[in-house]
Structure formats: structure tokens, C-alpha cells
């Protein structure tokens, strides 16, 4: 447990360094810190006994993070592929135990967001990226929906992941951007991955869970009294 806490603290420190570098416009700091983030979070999950699908999702995010450090279109497409694989891992992870709620309302909300966002972005996206972005957006939205069915914390993580990638898409479409757009993209992305980790229904990753009480030892059967010797039977009427 101590090792897991140390890894989490290290992840938070590196995340702060990365966000600080982006806020200050210090590109080398971002280039050094960004590739360390998801391996640290994945190591934390592994140290706490988290599921393999969660570790795999984070490592897929690491591959996407590294590739998106490049501005080349091939690297962008490959990075999108890594993130898509991570979303498949999340779908498998959160698809095991959905909680009761209002799935129809959640599905309608995310479906509307998907259709409206793609309709607005489509004319401004490069022609060669329209189909890949549409396919990726569908997978991302499905992940966010499934995370929302898994609980509030995971649902917030899925929603923030959707926000982060939508900010990236607006940059690809050459829409007007907020000051320091990379800062807002990384801030929402890091919060999303952390909340998805915290929202995973895993005993090792939930705080305050009491250990299961040991089951009571079975009561040994009572011995049956030995029958009286043959000469004693029928001695009393």
C-alpha cells in the first residue's frame, strides 16, 4: 500500500509539473513530463491490485500521449488508434457491473452530444480525417456512456475525457481556441483518467473499505450417545 501511495503522489507531482510547464509555455518541460504520467498512474493501479483492463487502458493512453507530442498527421492517427484501444478496454471494464439508473436518458444525452458535435465539426475537419474522427468519437461517446452507468466518479471521468478530446477536435478543425489550449486539454484529460481510475469498482482502489469479516468456524457436530450394552437393554420396564 505504501508503494501505491508513493506512486500516486509522484503522479500528482509530475502532473503539476506538466500543467505548470504548459501554463508557462515551457515546451521542454511538457515534453519530459507528459510521457511519465500514464505509466505512473498505471503502476499505481497495479500496485493497488487493480484490474488488468484498467492498466491496459492507461498504457494505451500513454502510447497516445507520446504519439501526440508530434504534429505529424500520421502520428495523430496512430495516437487516436491507441486511445481508441484504451476506450475498448474501458468498455470491457465498465461493462461488467453497470449500476441501476436512467440508461435511456443518459444514452439520449450522449447521443445528442455526439450528433451535434460531429455536425458542427464536419465541414471544418480535413477531408481525410472526417471518417476516422467520426469513428473515434462514436467509440469515445460509448465509453463515456458506459462509465456513467458505472457510477458518478467514473461518469465524471468519462465526460471529461469527452470534453478533452472535443477540445483537440476543435483545434484540428481550426476553430478559435482558448488561451493556452494545450493546458485545458491536458487538465481535463488528466482529471478524466484519474477519475476513471478512482471510479473503477475495485476493492484495492476504493478508500475506506473495511476488510471482510472472517466467516465463523463451523460448529462441530455433537457426538451421538453410544447405545447401551446388550445386557443392559430391557432391564427397566
Keywords:
237 residues; mainly alpha; 8 helices; globular; disordered C terminus
List the helices and strands and how they pair.
Layout: H1 2-24, H2 27-47, H3 52-67, H4 73-94, H5 103-121, H6 127-150, H7 152-172, H8 181-198
Helix pairs in contact: 1-2, 1-8, 2-3, 3-4, 4-6, 5-6, 6-7, 7-8
Task: Provide a descriptive summary of the structure in words.
The protein has 237 residues and is an all-alpha fold. The chain is built from eight helices and no strands. It has helices at 2-24, 27-47, 52-67, 73-94, 103-121, 127-150, 152-172, 181-198.
Q: What class do helices, strands and sheet pairing give?
A: mainly alpha
- Kindly state the percentage of residues in helix: 55-70%
Outline: globular
**What's the alpha carbon Rg, rounded to whole Å?**
27 Å
Which runs of at least 5 residues are low in confidence (pLDDT < 50)? 207-218, 228-237
**Number of helical segments with 4 or more residues:** 8
> What is the quaternary state of this protein?
single chain
Q: H/E element string?
A: HHHHHHHH
Biggest sheet character: none
What is the β-strand count?
A: 0
Distance linking N and C termini = 73 Å
Q: Tell me the strand percentage band.
A: under 5%
Averaged pLDDT, please?
A: 87
Structure in a nutshell:
The chain has helices spanning 2-24, 27-47, 52-67, 73-94, 103-121, 127-150, 152-172, 181-198. It has 237 residues and is mostly helical. The longest helix has 24 residues, at 127-150.
Amino acid at each position: 500500500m505504501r508503494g501505491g501511495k508513493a506512486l500516486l503522489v509522484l503522479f500528482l507531482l509530475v502532473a503539476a509539473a506538466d500543467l505548470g510547464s504548459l501554463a508557462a509555455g515551457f515546451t521542454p518541460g511538457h515534453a519530459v513530463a507528459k510521457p511519465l504520467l500514464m505509466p505512473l498512474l498505471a503502476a499505481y493501479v497495479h500496485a493497488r491490485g487493480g484490474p488488468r483492463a484498467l492498466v491496459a487502458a492507461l498504457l494505451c493512453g500513454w502510447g497516445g500521449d507520446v504519439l501526440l507530442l508530434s504534429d505529424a498527421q500520421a502520428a495523430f492517427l496512430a495516437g487516436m488508434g491507441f486511445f481508441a484501444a484504451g476506450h475498448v478496454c474501458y468498455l470491457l471494464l465498465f461493462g461488467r457491473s453497470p449500476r441501476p439508473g436512467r440508461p435511456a436518458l443518459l444514452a439520449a444525452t450522449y447521443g445528442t452530444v455526439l450528433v451535434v458535435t460531429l455536425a458542427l465539426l464536419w465541414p471544418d475537419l480535413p477531408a481525410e480525417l472526417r471518417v476516422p474522427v467520426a469513428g473515434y468519437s462514436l467509440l469515445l461517446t460509448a465509453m463515456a456512456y458506459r462509465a456513467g452507468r458505472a457510477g458518478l466518479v467514473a461518469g465524471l471521468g468519462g465526460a471529461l475525457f469527452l470534453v478533452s478530446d472535443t477540445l483537440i477536435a476543435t483545434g484540428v478543425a481550426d476553430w478559435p481556441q482558448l488561451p493556452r489550449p494545450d493546458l485545458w486539454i491536458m487538465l481535463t484529460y488528466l482529471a478524466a483518467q484519474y477519475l476513471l481510475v478512482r471510479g473503477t469498482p475495485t476493492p484495492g482502489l476504493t478508500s475506506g473499505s473495511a476488510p471482510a469479516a472472517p466467516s465463523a468456524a463451523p460448529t462441530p457436530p455433537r457426538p451421538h450417545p453410544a447405545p447401551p450394552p446388550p445386557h443392559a437393554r430391557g432391564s427397566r420396564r
